[in-house]
Write a structure and sequence with these properties.
The chain is of the alpha/beta class and 485 residues long. The chain has 3 domains: 93 residues, Udp-n-acetylmuramoylalanyl-d-glutamate--2,6- Diaminopimelate Ligase, Chain: A, domain 1 (3-Layer(aba) Sandwich), CATH 3.40.1390; 228 residues, Mur-like, catalytic domain (UDP-N-acetylmuramoyl-L-alanine:D-glutamate ligase, 3-Layer(aba) Sandwich); 149 residues, Protein-Tyrosine Phosphatase, Chain A, CATH 3.90.190. The chain contains 15 helices and 24 strands. The chain has an 11-stranded mixed β-sheet with strand order 9-8-7-10-6-11-12-13-14-15-16, sandwiched between helices. Strand 7 and strand 8 form a beta hairpin. The radius of gyration is 24 Å and the shape is globular.
Length: 485
């Protein structure tokens, strides 16, 4: 491919060589460079790609994309741009033949609800006959291929590579989670989303190598509304006016507010032994009743978001209702049948904010007892342990403290930290280091009407101990326990 074609949608300066040369591959990882590669020098939080220039040139890189002038041999073309991450996105899009232009692209951002909403959208659209690709926190799905995720929003090159594979697989559309980091680092540049969704925002991801403060976090997330054709925003969010400030898209809203274009009215909890759900009536741009087999007010928001998107795909009311009933997300309020007498579920809640939201939601169903099993990861903030211990002690009737990913710490030391938070409450607890034994205890001591939540692991199918990941899927553990293994 001609270098000039890869650069056609970018502003750049050719400071050495010419743009009329062939490029064999594109790379931003020096280990993947070969003869004729175009190498993009990315400044990362830890490593600066400019430092690898001598190495990549010796391997055969003939084109460099840089942010500053560099000295290299004469047969190497040097292209200077303002931001190499931004340039990588456009170069990658061109390299893979602008695949996003052959798909309907849906990007979902927000502090909570991204993962669940992407699966709801996928479920509804597939029920209506569309072939849907997905990119998210848990995995990327391309046809029958499932790729475990390393980041919520992959690097721009990977996104474009996935888009290309989706087009080749015959996908009509793609729904993807868009993180604030992904937006800040220009991973979703190089194309325009057909639909950009903003679910909500709360303080999160603030600290070193993330966002300096809440204002920066919000402004990064709001970038999506400048990178889409139609923006769909939660009208109830207290930061709504800030979120839509400077938007360049058509705007639609959803929520409980009378001002919302799609509104939920007459919301009711639906509960029975082994079943928790919620129902409401949809008003505004559409009008029909909805029931979801996932508990909590946030499930209404997630479903409203999904419906707001799918309305643009002319999905029938019947298909929407049917798809929402069967939409499930691994590790997100995932109910696992173990008894007709009580309810057990798995959820990814792994910080105090998420755990408080989850337990508060479940208490609304007035269980006989609310039982919370969780641990905390090693080599992470002790504050998280204190906070989660305090939240569970305050809201759960019984807390089962166990192990999560201890990494290089002793599990008992982590449990002792959690107990510091528990001590601030009058909450009852037991401590069982081995997670399988802890889950067995929860099941064997379940009482009629209980809601038992296994928190923290969610979709993860491993436990990380001393630098090694060991297989550990809670669904498998539960099956083994029920089988007496």
């Amino acid at each position: 491919m001609k270098l000039s074609s890869l650069l056609e949608r970018l502003e750049y300066t050719c400071i050495q060589g010419c743009v009329d040369r062939e490029v064999t591959t594109v790379a931003y990882d020096s280990r993947k460079v070969q003869e004729g590669t175009l190498f993009v020098c990315i400044r990362g939080a830890v490593v600066d790609g400019h430092k690898f220039i001598p190495d990549v040139v010796s391997k055969g890189a003939k084109t460099l994309i840089v942010e500053e002038p560099v000295e290299v041999q004469e047969d190497v073309t040097v292209i200077q741009v303002k931001d190499t991450r931004y340039a990588l996105a456009f170069i990658s899009a061109a390299y893979f033949g602008h695949p996003a232009e052959k798909l309907k692209t849906i990007g979902i951002t927000g502090t909570k609800g991204k993962t669940t909403t992407t699966y709801m959208v996928k479920s509804i659209l597939e029920n209506a006959g569309y072939k849907v690709g997905l990119i998210g926190t848990i995995e990327a799905i391309i046809g029958d291929r499932v790729i475990p995720a390393a980041n919520t929003t992959p690097e721009s090159y990977v996104i474009q590579e996935y888009f290309r594979e989706m087009v080749d697989e015959g996908c009509d559309c793609v729904v993807m989670e868009v993180s604030s980091q992904g937006l800040m680092l220009h991973r979703t540049q190089g194309f325009v989303f057909d639909f950009g969704i903003f679910t909500n925002i709360e303080p999160d991801h603030i600290g070193p190598n993330e966002h300096k403060d809440f204002a920066h976090y919000l402004s990064c997330k709001a970038m999506l509304l400048k990178q889409c054709r139609v923006g769909i925003v939660n009208r109830d969010d207290e930061h709504f006016d800030k979120i839509i400030e400077g938007h360049t898209c058509e705007l639609e809203t959803y929520g409980f507010s009378p001002k919302a274009d799609l509104r939920a009215e007459d919301a009711k909890l639906v509960g029975a032994k082994g079943y928790l759900g919620i129902s409401y009536h949809l008003r505004g741009l559409l009008d029909f009743p909805v029931e979801i087999d996932i508990p909590g007010k946030f499930s209404i928001y997630n479903s409203l978001t999904a419906i707001a998107i799918c309305r643009h795909f002319q999905v029938s009311e019947e298909n929407i209702i049917r798809a929402l009933k069967v939409a499930k997300v691994k590790g997100r309020i995932e109910m696992v049948k173990v008894s007709d007498e009580f309810t057990l579920m798995i959820d990814y809640a792994h910080n105090a904010m998420a755990l408080e939201s989850l337990l508060t939601t479940l208490k609304e169903y007035k269980p006989h007892r609310l039982v919370c099993l969780f641990g905390c990861g090693g080599n992470r903030s002790k504050l998280r342990r204190y906070e989660m211990g305090e939240v569970s002690g305050r809201l759960a009737d019984l807390t089962i403290i166990t192990s999560d990913n201890p990494r290089n710490e002793e599990p008992q030391a982590i449990i002792d930290d959690i107990k510091v938070g528990m001590a601030k409450t009058e909450g009852k607890y037991v401590e069982i280091i081995d997670r399988k034994e802890a889950i067995a205890y929860a099941i064997q001591h379940g009482e009629p009407g209980d809601i038992i939540i296994l928190a923290g692991k969610g979709h993860e199918d491993y436990q990380e101990i001393k630098g090694k990941k060991y297989p550990m899927d809670e669904r498998v553990l539960i099956a083994d326990i029920l089988a007496g293994k």
